[in-house]
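Morning F.,

Quick status update on the modeling queue. The single chain you submitted on Monday has been processed. Sequence for confirmation:
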Amino acid sequence: MDTKKTVIVTGFQPFGEHKVNASWSAVQELEKLGLGEDINLLVKEIPVEYKAVSKLLPSLWKQYQPELVVHVGVSGMATSVTLEQCGHNYGYTRLDNCHFCPNSQCCINEGPDCIMSVIDMDSVCEKVNSSSQGVAFSVSKDAGRYLCDYTYYTSLYLGNRRCAFVHVPPLGKRHSAEDLGRALQAVVLEMLQSMEDQMDQDQDHCQDEH
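Structure tokens below.
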């Protein structure tokens, strides 16, 4: 019986000015590095299409029952690797690669306005910034109301908040794909540790109450 935890990390296909999407390049580098022998790492490239995201994400969560899903996207404005704390349900008016956007302009009908990740991104950011990765990390609470935010919110909703989103800068702006792959490895491992620590705290609290 396989007792390894499964972690899914996704990047996006090219869109707009991003003829090579740095998110997928970084995820491919992460795949080469892996997350250690105790983790089954699965990587997926996601189309920049609302309908494709809405169809793909439920199947990923159901089929693989992952411990954690980390979505990675590119931001032309980013100068650091940015950890997104939350996803938003409303405000999707930008057309995707198929020139489509949802009529409802939202991810999940009647879902909450905002969903926070179970992971404390400020804590994760502080730890990876102090670990000499050679890459700067920051935290954001606005993933941009496009496919990144749409994907993040949908996955947070489906996965009971066991999800994270990371924005990376375009390739060559400051870092290579290899740099970003190493940064992703560090941050995903720290996220997993954060989740484990939280579980331990919850168990201790439960025992204290009994």
